[in-house]
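If you are new to this repository, start here. Below is one unmodified record pulled from the training split, so you can see the exact layout before writing a loader.
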Amino acid sequence: MFKGHIAPVNAVAFAPDSKTVASVSADTTALIWDVTKVDRSKVPAKALAAGDLETCWQALADNDAAKAFTRMGDLIAAPKDAVAWLKARVKPALPLDMKRVEALIGQLDDKRFKVREKAAAELLNIGDHLVPVIDKTLAANLSPETKRRLAELRGKLALLQDERLRSYRAVEVLERIGTPEARQVLRTLADGAPGALVTTTAKEALNR
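And here is the target side for that same chain:
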């Protein structure tokens, strides 16, 4: 526990790297703390059966944050089993096939509604690392229909849902486990396609 203020703390703020935190107190002082020097009690390692691991895996994509947090704690408490499980299921983002992406974007203004809908669905399935391409494309001179569909697509890709949410939480689990094996999985994920959520979050985790 940090000691320094002699009155209630009114506000706290973490630095972007999560290594320092600032606190402001009613005693008129503001202090900067080095979070990396905090002693953290180690949780005894345990083993998880395959069924338990599957339950945790499903919870990582659950919209119930409390449920997901509990299962993340279960994974962190079983580092050996958790790392092996996540390594087999969370994969680096694959590079974009730009020719296919450009063709699909072109189809967003096709005269046939079914073609436009199919192209939009396929673009959505590509994943969040399509966002930089969409941003660049939106800056060009586009038809109203293409611009509308791309803006709508970007909004959907920006949300942490389903597999993207699961990957985000899986990276957090690996970071908090912090073993050499866990960090190796993070390095593999960080080498994925630029712009993907799993790539970005893995890089951030390694830099913290």
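Two things worth knowing about this chain: DSSP finds ten helices and three strands in the chain. The mean pLDDT is 89.
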